[in-house]
Amino acid sequence: MTLSFPPPALSAVQNVSTVLEQQGYAVLLPAQLAQLARVDLPALLAWRPAWDELPPDAYLRDGGRYRRRRHSCFVVTGDAVAQQPHRPHWQPLAYNALHGGLERHFEPMAPALVGQAAWAQLLAWLGSVASGLKGAQAWYAEAHQFRIDTTDGIGRPTPEGAHRDGVDLVAVFLVARSGIKGGETRVFEADGPNGQRFTLTEPWSLLLLDDARVIHESTPIQPLEAGGHRDTLVVTLRARGFQAEG
Fold first, then answer.
1. 29 φ, ψ (degrees, to nearest 5)
2. What does each C-alpha distance from 85 to 75, 78, 82 come to in angstroms?
3. Superfamily holding 13-238
4. Residue 222 and residue 108: Cα distance in Å, rounded?
5. Per-residue pLDDT tens for 165-222?
6. From CA 11, how far away is CA 237, in angstroms rounded?
7. H or E stretch including 222?
């Protein structure tokens, strides 16, 4: 029997910073996200077709074919969001034992998506959340569109296992899930015994993580029908620059 635990959503949209400070993570339902970020939920839902156009991830060291992605970088300063020249994605081995220490070159996100006012508003709001948690400053944001599919019979949203990302704030938006089982989210204290597990099911539900305090992973997905997949948008925010080798 497969158990699916509902996400522990905020009891009130005003207390996202308090919840992050208390437990290191927070979950928002789509309506809560729309209210807090001041974005139109139908506008976010209209982005879903952009996940149908993601190139394959050529860097999977487990030999899988289950991941597609795009990646772009931005600097968020208050309400200002500036896209940066395209750059490779890099993480140290300390945070990603499977794919760390490697420059990974992904295709950028489509201008038709990142040029929208709702995109800038969403990133500006994430910057305000990070500033509320860590202090007001510029934030170096990396945005990743992911599709995990079941081409090989199983898809792994986090092939590196439970991990931190080496940033200050991580935002995981569920964009869509179709024809799958699995994909349970697990969040654990980085320095303690406590953890939480739940399944994000509603498009544009959001998991926010204080990366210094918690580690996270998502369990593999399996198909319930042909073409089963799980789409997410992951945005990381880091102070004092992007992660770079050396």
1. -80, 160
2. 11, 20, 10
3. q2cbj1_9rhob like domain (2.60.120.620)
4. 28
5. 999 999 999 999 999 999 999 999 988 888 899 999 999 999 999 999 999 999 999 9
6. 25
7. strand 221-223
